[in-house]
Amino acid sequence: MYFRYVFGHYIAYLFALVGNFTRNFDPSVSYTIFETVLLVLVVIMALAKLIIMIVRGILDPIVYPPSDEDKQQLLGEKFHVYKI
Questions:
Q1: pLDDT one-digit tens code per residue, 64-74
Q2: Positions in the chain short of pLDDT 70
Q3: How far apart are CA 53 and CA 56, in angstroms?
Q4: Distance (Å, rounded) from C-alpha 19 to C-alpha 38?
Q5: 42: number of Cβ within 10 Å
Q6: Coil/strand/helix, residue 27
Q7: Residue 83: what pLDDT?
Q8: d(CA 6, CA 17)
Q9: Residue 28 Cα to chain centre, angstroms
Q10: Domain residues of the chain, as ranges?
Q11: CB 3.0–4.6 Å: which of 44, 52, 54, 66 could bond 70 by disulfide?
């Protein structure tokens, strides 16, 4: 549930692949084509993760139980009477 918003590894993959792609691009070498395919896959997966995060955040947000301070703000002086 709490790993829903983890996005950091996609950023690392993108930086690594783009850096390697810009420095070592040679279309005649086979690993460059494989690297390009990996870069496209990472971009597609990162966009899919971003869309899924937004949709889940709207449809099923993570709701944390209210703390005593929140309850006291809402109820004011009556909070001490109702506290169990």
A1: 776 666 666 66
A2: 1-2, 4, 66-84
A3: 5
A4: 13
A5: 19
A6: coil
A7: 52
A8: 19
A9: 36
A10: 2-82
A11: 66
